[in-house]
Amino acid sequence: MDARRKTNYSPTFLRHYTYDPPPPKSTGRRKVARVFLWSVLLIGLPLGILALSWLIILPDIDVLARTNPTSTALMDHRLTRAAEQGRSGKRQWIWTPLRRIAPELQRAVIAAEDASFFVHEGFDWEGIRDAALYNLETGELKRGGSTITQQLAKNLYLSSERSLFRKAREALITRSLEHQLTKTRILELYLNVAEWGHGVYGAEAAARHHFGKSSSDLTADEAAWLAAILPSPQRYDPLRKTTFLTSRHQRILGWMEKVAVSSHKRVQ
Fold first, then answer.
1. What domains, with CATH codes, occur in the chain?
2. Of 69, 49, 48, nearest to 59 (Cα)?
3. Who is most buried in 4, 142, 161, 211, counting CB within 10 A?
4. What is d(CA 180, CA 186) in angstroms, rounded to the nearest whole number?
């Protein structure tokens, strides 16, 4: 009987079962994620802090209320570029007080570059909107809608690159210029550091270089020619009257009539 019972057991029930866990998942993705995270922490974070510091730490604008700059970022950039190309970096620059710069040139520059200069607080929002729409259509940062104060900030302290980061810093410096300097001082600084040709900076050097006279003796017509070349001073020459330059010159003369009364009272 015991023998029969033993033969009734199936070998299947005598089999020992063990649990085999599934093979471990690949840790490749986790390793990549860890490497990426550490890369961000070790490289990206310091660079981000450096960039943020550069953006926040502004130049000492208050010193401009008391002293005139001895150079600008644009001048330094031009000199460096000339040296790299093996050219002479000779600079023509004569600082001149605003009272000795012809009112005609002051009006011409305001009319051509920033008609609402004495009204806004550093930013021409309508111009910025139009420039932004143009940039969106073209897909490039070609226009900036810059005011005289913004151009001064760029000339004094910034590079010529076109980027959103640089524009942000430009905005902060522009705000500081408007809050710490008077409008007449901003205009005086701009007229003295603006580029008016290859190695030609400021109204006095521009008047002597292009017309052989002092900036105090410029006529309205001559002032309009100088203002006409400001967007591209290394490309245009007021003595070479191209179709584009002539058309712009005529428009500026018309604009000067519109801003003559308000701007003349403020800059005297």
1. 71-81+93-267 (1.10.3810.10)
2. 69
3. 211
4. 10
